[in-house]
Design a protein that fits this description.
This protein is 55% helix and 10% strand. It is an alpha/beta fold. An eight-stranded mixed beta sheet has the order 1-7-8-6-5-2-3-4, with helices on both faces. Helix 4 packs antiparallel against helix 5. Bound molecules: S-adenosylmethionine. S-adenosylmethionine binds next to helix 17. Keywords: TPR repeat. InterPro entries: SAM-dependent_MTases_sf, TPR-like_helical_dom_sf, TPR_rpt, TylF_MeTrfase.
Length: 436
């Protein structure tokens, strides 16, 4: 039966949203001739649940404008900003709330998530500690803390927090999945696989967990297991095969000393240590300086970091142009790092003119084809046998073969370069390459 008055309709829509029936809630609310403030707020939340961010921002924005004191709507609006790649806007909104309400659990959760999306991992961890001091402890805050510790390279600390969270909620598929990477780094591959299997067995598990299980099986040569997963749980989920295809593309070039990693910072430090040839240490894609710090600490020499600090110059998959911007703010970095702000197209050639010699190590973390191509073309005559390259986002995402992978494959074909992969981190889609 159709509810006759707005408040009945809104009550029903609220119930549907609580039950995650977002499409049904949207249909119901769209049937209303005129939306009240609460109707806009609910419709915005329904769109947010459907991951349809532009209408979510519109309706939540209208509701927030009609009543700026409605904290719940403001928090949903901030979440929509974060999810749609605008974490800075969310941070500005939420910091105002937590400044006066440090004990507001939902505001703290949303702000920690926005800091994480903005790669401000230390700020997120500090916020979780402050919330704990105000006696606010939630599973979501533990989740954010573990994610941020892992992103900073603190795999052991992250694993401790994951296990606290999994003690509270043993059915949390995402917790088992995320923790497998920390376990791979600091415990063993077997422990990582155990956690992945737990993730895959959880109610509503994501098909990508099976793709990870198959990918690790391929790396260790267990083709029987990989085939069983492909013919079984992955058969109905072909869109999860990107990671498997990427791993297969690496196989012909695996080195004898190849190692699997679960954490970006650990892979970077290993790759820098493997770079024995004297020369330049470079990074393309600095953002907030997370990877830069690992490289600088491991390198023991000057490091040069290049970034526009304006984000991606073009869209990349579902990430719009400008994603990962720091709004031109340069991050704090160790004393041996020099930052070169600007587009690679403008900064690389003048830098090379003033810095002769080969490349010892380069981290290419700029995601898109054109940027990776600019870097590789610019460095072509500086890469020598023994030079080490790390690529982030090399394999595993849906468009992996169109970006950094494609740029490197074109480069090796054009220059007749021989190379091998001596490390990979499927979780962060990184590979480390040695030029032969
Ligand atoms: C994923 S982020 C780098 C993340 C960083 N390595 C870390 O550890 O967090 C990619 C960065 O590449 C930069 N970028 C991409 N293409 C660029 C180009 N052509 N010129 C300058 N910067 C670029 C973006 O500004 C962005 O900060």
């Amino acid at each position: 039966m159709e509810p006759a008055v707005a408040s009945d309709c809104e009550d029903m829509a609220g119930g549907m949203i609580a039950a995650k029936r977002y499409r049904a809630a949207r249909r119901l609310l769209m049937g209303q001739e005129v939306l009240t403030r609460n109707g806009h707020a609910l419709l915005g939340r329904a769109y947010l649940g459907m991951k349809d961010y532009e209408p979510a921002l519109h309706h939540l924005g209208v509701a927030a404008e009609m009543d700026p004191d409605d904290l719940e709507t403001l928090i949903h609006l901030a979440r929509a900003c974060t999810a749609s790649g605008r974490p800075h806007t969310a941070i500005r909104m939420l910091e105002r709330v937590t400044a006066t309400r440090p004990d507001h659990a939902e505001a703290c959760e949303a702000l920690a998530g926005a800091y994480r999306r903005d790669a401000r991992y230390a700020d997120a961890i500090q916020l979780v500690k402050a919330a704990e001091a105000a006696e606010v402890r939630t599973g979501q805050l533990l989740y954010e803390e573990a994610m941020c510790l892992h992103a900073l390279g603190e795999a052991a600390g992250a694993l401790v927090v994951w296990d606290k969270l999994l003690d509270l909620d043993g059915g949390l598929a995402a917790g088992w999945f995320q923790s497998h990477a920390a376990a791979l780094q600091v415990v063993s591959l077997d422990e990582a696989l155990r956690r992945l299997r737990r993730a895959a067995e959880c109610h509503g598990a994501n098909g990508k967990y099976w793709a990870f299980l198959a990918a690790y099986a391929i790396f260790v040569g267990d083709e029987e297991e990989a085939a069983a997963i492909a013919a079984g749980p992955l058969a109905a989920r072909p869109h999860h095969s990107a990671l498997i295809d990427g791993v297969r593309a690496l196989l012909p070039h695996l080195s004898a000393d190849f190692r699997l990693f679960g954490c970006s910072g650990h892979l970077l430090r290993h790759a820098v240590a493997a770079a024995g040839q004297a020369g330049l240490v470079l990074e393309f894609g600095v953002r907030r300086g997370t990877s830069t710090t690992h490289i600088a600490e491991a390198a023991g020499q000057p490091v040069h970091g290049f970034d526009s600090f304006e984000g991606l110059p073009e869209g990349w998959g579902s990430q719009p142009q400008g994603s990962f911007t720091t709004e031109l703010e340069l991050p704090p970095v160790p004393a041996n790092v020099t930052l070169h702000a600007g587009w690679f197209e403008d900064t690389l050639a003048p830098f090379l003119a003033g810095h002769p010699g080969p490349v010892r190590f380069v981290n290419i973390d700029c995601d898109i084809y054109s940027s990776a191509r600019t870097v590789l073309t610019g460095l072509a005559d500086r890469l020598r046998p023994g030079s080490i390259l790390v690529f982030d986002e090399y394999i595993g995402n849906q468009t992996w073969h169109e970006h950094e992978y494609k740029a490197f494959q074109e480069f090796v074909a054009e220059h007749g370069t021989r190379y091998e992969y001596f490390a990979a981190c499927p979780f962060t889609r990184q590979v480390a390459v040695r030029i032969l």
